[in-house]
Amino acid sequence: AHEAALILGKDFPPEVAACQLAFEIASIAAGIVTLDGRPLWFSSTFPTLLGYSAEEFSGQTAAQCIHPDDVPAFQKRLSNTAQNPPSLNVAERRYRHKNGHYFWVSVTSNMIRNDKGEATHILGIFQDISERKLQERALQESKDHLNTILESVKDVVWSFSATEHKLTYMNSNATKTLYKRNNEEFLANPDLWMEVVHPEDRTRVAGILQRLSHGPTEDFYRILRPS
Question: Per the confidence metrics, is the pTM higher than 0.90?
Fold first, then answer.
């Protein structure tokens, strides 16, 4: 690792060579590419992330391992990076493992610039996030399943943030049937749910909210439809 850093240090500022050495010591998957995506250096951990040895990965590029559906976004990011001010960029894309399956990787990248502030190379740090993606997918499937159930019932089901006075969920079919209004109206106006309460019942409805802070409550009130 030390020898590789010294060799690359001939082409990069000393601080870049020091970073390369630090990545090797910390076993961090990282790489440096040109602005058009040509690889100049990868830490030894990067091939391991993809299931290769350093010798097996020799001659390949990270771009060759990107899922075909993610290539356009990758190329667009490369073309836009040099024009943007210095800042960290985080992208999530799929890479092909040696055994053939694709898995999700988070890529944090930043520019390497010369003394004039001109972008010359891109530094990227790679992290396997496939487990997190699986959890996100399972959570979304659970939400979709719950939403299917709630949309099939005839009762109105709402979720409301008492602190932010914002609707966080409403089953659209039952809401439209009861209130004769579309969800968009309620989402656009967080106070609409109270405005449609009969004026004579609003004080009691406000008391429902206060009682909810102490536990479940049940009450009744009248609402006004657009007609």
Answer: no
